[in-house]
Amino acid sequence: MSMIRDLRAAVRPTLRPSLRKTPTVYTAYDPTRDPSASSAVVDCAVYRDGRRVDDRDCLTPRGAMRQVRESGGFAWIGLHEPTEAEFAGIAAEFGLHPLAVEDAVHAHQRPKLERYDDTLFTVFKTIHYVEHAELTATSEVVETGEVMCFTGPDFVITVRHGGQGSLRNLRHRLQGEPELLGKGPSAVLHAIADHVVDGYIAVADAVELDIDQIEIDVFSPPAKGSTRGTDTGRIYQLKREVLEFKRAVTPLLRPMQLLSERPMRLVDPDIQKYFRDVADHLARVQEQVVGFDELLNSILQANLAQATVAQNEDMRKITSWAAIVAVPTAVCGVYGMNFDHMPELHWRYGYPMVLVGITAICFTIHRTLKRNGWL
Fold this sequence. Notes:
Helix content: 55-70%
Mean pLDDT: 81
Strand order of the largest sheet: 2-1-3-7-6-5-4
Order of helices and strands: HEEHEHHEEEEHHHHHHH
Shape: rod-shaped
Radius of gyration: 35 Å
Number of strands: 7
Distance between the termini: 76 Å
Low-confidence stretches: 1-38
């Protein structure tokens, strides 16, 4: 216990000074505002009985929380890449744990599910497939981002990092399903998890097409003048991208299983059933990604083996021609010696006979090597 207290004492001093800075002014959310503007709040709303409350006070995090405490419902606040100063007031208003706040601000976290008192902190890795006309050794196949979700009894705070994974369309879709949104913050958490996993499925299908193309290129007859080793860079690049995909999918499987199996006070029992479906889809994607990794290993090994075989064939051809050339080289070397008494040196037909002998021997060697598959 003393070790835990020491660790907390070491972490909190770096976080609490910023959390004590409680900004008194929040920029109200404007639906027409450019998301690249200085404010990190991209949307802020209160939902009561599954419907968005049309009140200007709800357009700021503080006003939204005041509405929730006075009239019920829950608040959903969306942020995009907030700084520590921008997030400090919201963290203080909703009582978020400093360790979770640090993870949400600095990002680059692995997918996980953590509970801090009455708040669930969930980290999702978003994956976006990068379209490309042709896969090369430097092609970017997948692009990653992050979505952090704070889920409390009466609030949901989503923090997004990266240019992909916008939740705007998801929010609009949920607003069209008041029965589902009426289940509270856990319905939003499920919708985000389902949205992220659906993205995984789409990316897995696209990556599978790239792997199929690589497989066809490796095992099809090589084009004239090309070598097998040219595909190695493409295979290795695709394997690196699949590894990035795997790092997003595999760690998320356990949190989804916990949300679907373990009763939680913050998760509505009716919503928990839907998490089971998300976990099943995620397990299928995880199996696909592991299969992609193993298949790329096999393709890479096959490509390297083909390159080795091609090199051996080239060496056999070079050796065969060297053996053929060695015959006239040896004969000419003998007759190039400066001696008076040599066989048939002064014979009228000696030179043509030597040429015929060289040709016959070279032809015999060539036929023998060709019959054995060396040429």
